[in-house]
Amino acid sequence: MPEFRWSPQPGELEFDAIRASGPGGQNVNKVSNAVHLRFDIRASSLPEAVKTRLLSWADQRITSDGVIVIKTQDSRSLERNRADAVARLIELVQAAAHVPKARRATKPTYGSQQRRLEGKSKRSEVKAGRRSKPDF
Q1: Are the beta carbons of 36 and 82 closer than 8 angstroms?
Q2: Spatial CA neighbour of 82 closest among 131, 24, 13
Q3: What is the pLDDT of residue 1?
Q4: What separation in angstroms does the CA of 133 have from each of 60, 118, 122, 126?
Q5: 29 pLDDT exceeds 80?
Q6: What are the boundaries of the region Disordered (predicted)?
Q7: How far is residue 34's CA from residue 53's CA, in Å, rounded to a whole number?
Q8: Maximal C-alpha separation, the chain
Q9: Any idea what DSSP says for residue 129?
Q10: SS3 per-residue string spanning 23-35
Q11: What mean pLDDT comes out for the span 42-53?
């Protein structure tokens, strides 16, 4: 099965630079290196099937309005955080594009059923042999 190749158009992405949380010393209060990426699913260039699958997901990154919000603050560089956010978005969309193979129900073979029952009866005999015999 071919892998779904997609990259977002520059106009579809909205970046907000915010201050990162966590350690960083004096610099953390001055520099906005964390990134919020917003991506509107309904207004995107994605195929309709992928859009509906994404909108039906119960993912905390997808708002009720159908906007994906990804926050990255792993790097101290704003550009690296932007690239990481776009990579995470592409990964999320590719996961939604993957259609799982339909499962076909099967029955166990007659031989496997017989082996299972045989094993159960042997185990039953072993346990019955452990029981104490009544003294009459």
Answers
A1: no
A2: 13
A3: 47
A4: 62, 25, 19, 14
A5: no
A6: 100-136
A7: 29
A8: 91
A9: H
A10: CCHHHHHCCCCEE
A11: 85
Tokens 């201050």 appear where? 19
State pTM to two decimals: 0.66
For the record, the structure tokens of 123 come out as 């185990």
Contact 24, 48 (CB under 8 A): no
- Work out whether strand 13-18 and strand 67-72 pair parallel, antiparallel, or are unpaired: unpaired
Q: How many CB atoms lie within 10 A of CB 72?
A: 21
Tell me the residue type at 15.
F
Residue 58 CA to residue 118 CA, distance in Å, equals: 45
**Rounded to an integer, what distance in angstroms lies between the CA atom of residue 34 and that of residue 9?**
21
- Measured CA to CA in angstroms, residue 36 lies from 3, 15, 17, 104, 110 at distances of 27, 6, 7, 42, 58
| CA 9 – CA 44 distance, rounded (Å) | 8
Q: Give the model's pLDDT for residue 133.
A: 76
Backbone φ and ψ for 123, nearest 5 degrees, come out as -65, -40
Phi then psi dihedrals of residue 73, to 5 deg? -150, 25
| pLDDT value for 121 | 97
